[in-house]
Design goal:
Length: 323
């Protein structure tokens, strides 16, 4: 199934922007001379999608506009500028940006990339940033009642569904996810016939509880498990010869005793040893852990003065978001 880039809602033509994850750093398996190429490809794709948004009545980002709650300011300003240009040039198009799980901090008091983005574009009458602080949002598109449901860090997804709707737009889990599982029973109760969701990066379509569910897929694949053959390829050692892989992220399968002794011109090069169980994951981000709680515990144990704590945490945050 192909990634979804446009749909129809009622009588309206709607552009769909799957999770862009702007600000994501591609480091693992990327040679120094290739650093920055994948990031540029993502930003160029994003800019192109917005540049062609004039053809739609509505243009919807289904979540995770940013890869983390804190990304470099340059990324936020680029994203905001692209939206500003598109919205001003196309006042007839309504732009909806749904908050995803990557767009907010685990510390809900913290302000981040999406807050700054909203501050910049918030005065435009045709741009709507929909986040958990306001719950669900219902509007009419093409004559249909459409409910927008952002990722909520504390409430079950079904609690956000309170009004009658025809179509749902969310950032849901579809197989496992506890409180963020797509609430198809509740959606069916309020009359919803079809639900579109981001969050799951592979496109898919199925029916549950009488509701047609469409996973639109991320804007681009960002790992081998998220690809349908567009950019990420897995090849045996003997399959590399003669292939143009310059625009691919390559994973090479190595049998016991095999080693790669040739250069491969590609965007990213990783290896998997056949017969060895390995976790196919990207680099671990320290932001995935509750570091503030760990810092607090360490400060208490060491009796660190409050002013010193503040200086340390400030320097840490500055370093995290630095380019």
């Amino acid at each position: 199934m192909q990634r979804i880039t446009e749909i129809e809602i009622g009588a309206a033509s709607v552009g769909i922007l799957g999770d862009p994850h702007l600000g994501r750093a591609f480091v693992r398996g990327v040679s120094l001379e290739k650093r920055g190429l994948r990031e540029k490809m993502v930003m160029d794709d994003f800019q192109q999608r917005l540049a062609t948004s004039c053809q739609y009545d509505a243009f919807i980002c289904v979540g995770d506009l940013f890869d983390k709650w804190a990304v470099p300011y340059s990324v936020v300003f680029q994203a905001a500028w692209v939206y500003l240009q598109a919205a001003r040039k196309n006042p007839q198009t309504s732009y909806y940006v749904l908050a995803g799980n990557h767009d907010i901090s685990r510390d809900l008091e913290k302000k981040g990339a999406l807050d700054l983005f909203e501050l910049i574009v918030g005065n435009l009458t045709n741009v709507f940033v929909i986040r958990h602080t306001n719950g669900g949002y219902v509007t009419k598109i093409g004559g249909d009642r459409v409910g927008f449901f952002p990722f909520h860090p504390t409430k079950p997804a079904e609690d956000l569904v309170t009004d009658k709707i025809d179509v749902a737009i969310g950032h849901y889990d579809t197989i496992f996810g506890e409180d963020n599982m797509i609430p198809t029973k509740r959606l069916a109760e309020v009359g919803c016939k079809v639900a579109y969701t981001g969050h799951v990066h592979l496109p898919d379509e199925f029916e549950r509880d009488g509701v047609k569910v469409i996973q639109v897929g991320s804007m681009q694949p960002y790992a081998h498990g998220e690809d349908t053959g567009e950019m990420y390829v897995t090849l045996g050692l003997g399959e590399l010869e003669g292939k143009d892989l310059s625009d691919k992220c390559v994973r090479v399968l190595l049998a016991p005793g095999e080693r790669l002794d040739q250069e491969v011109d590609c965007l990213q090069l990783t290896f998997k040893r056949i017969g060895v169980v390995e976790e196919d994951t990207e680099e671990v981000s320290m932001g995935d852990f509750n570091l503030m709680a760990l810092f607090g515990q360490a400060f208490e144990e060491a009796a660190v003065p409050d002013d010193v704590r503040s200086q340390i945490l400030t320097r840490f945050e500055e370093t995290r978001v630095a380019e």
